């Protein structure tokens, strides 16, 4: 609706005309029953984030469709081109990560968007199963493993699927090994 204006001012002792009086109430009634928009909210209103729907990009403080501003950082669904300062691109945000122990019974220590690990009969092979699947199998993962007390020679990506990624860990002798600590991060379109 926009900013509510005050079309009539009533002085003390003046005769109030019903139509003038009702127009004020109609404006307020209509505005506060589902029609509040950005023009009605002060920049200093301090609205708590939990009161806002942050699920859709571009709905909060947007001046450009598809871009929302959060504490001087823009979030955009745009892709390609030259990166813009202070802009987060949704495809560059971490989509999943896991920190797990591969020794004994493999255990997820902490994770985000990872449902489980799958082990295989080949030592050192694990599949990381995603909670939210990727749009295709061309996403990117970064993997590392080992502690200062163990030497892990390499980590290789065995395969990608939209619902998991399979990796294999090797020791310094090029034999499969189950690392005591492994960390994997995934980026891509979901």
3D structure, described in words:
This protein has 190 residues and is mainly beta. The chain folds into three domains: 1-40, no CATH class; 46-90, no CATH class; 96-187, no CATH class. The chain has one helix and eleven strands, in the order H-E-E-E-E-E-E-E-E-E-E-E. The chain has one helix spanning 18-31, and strands at residues 67-70, 73-76, 87-89, 96-101, 107-112, 114-119, 125-130, 140-145, 152-161, 164-171, 182-187. The strands form three sheets. It has a four-stranded antiparallel beta sheet, with no helix packed on it. Strands 6-7-10-9 form a four-stranded antiparallel beta sheet, with no helix packed on it. It has a three-stranded mixed beta sheet with strand order 1-2-3, with no helix packed on it. It is rod-shaped. 14% of the residues are buried.
Biggest sheet strand order reads 5-4-11-8
| Alpha plus pi helix count | 1
Q: Which spans of ≥5 residues are poorly predicted at pLDDT below 50? A: 57-63
Mean pLDDT: 79
Q: Percent of residues in beta strands?
A: 25-35%
How many distinct folded domains? Answer: 3
Measured as a percent range, the helix fraction is under 10%
- Report the span from N to C terminus: 36 Å
Structural class: mainly beta
């Amino acid at each position: 609706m926009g900013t509510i204006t005050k079309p009539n001012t009533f002085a003390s002792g003046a005769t109030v005309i019903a139509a003038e009086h009702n127009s004020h109430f109609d404006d307020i009634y209509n505005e506060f029953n589902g029609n509040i928009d950005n023009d009605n909210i002060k920049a200093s209103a301090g609205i708590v984030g939990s009161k806002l729907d942050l699920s859709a990009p571009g709905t909060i403080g947007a001046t450009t469709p598809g871009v929302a501003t959060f504490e001087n950082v823009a979030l955009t669904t745009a892709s390609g081109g030259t990166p813009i300062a202070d802009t987060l691109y949704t495809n560059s945000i971490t989509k999943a990560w896991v920190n797990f122990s591969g020794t004994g019974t493999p255990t997820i220590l902490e994770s985000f968007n990872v449902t489980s690990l799958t082990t295989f009969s080949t030592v050192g092979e694990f599949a990381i199963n995603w909670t939210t699947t990727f749009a295709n199998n061309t996403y990117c993962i970064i993997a590392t493993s080992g502690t200062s007390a163990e030497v892990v020679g390499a980590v290789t990506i065995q395969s990608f699927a939209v619902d998991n990624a399979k990796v294999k860990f090797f020791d310094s002798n090029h034999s499969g090994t189950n690392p005591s600590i492994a960390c994997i991060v995934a980026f891509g379109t979901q």
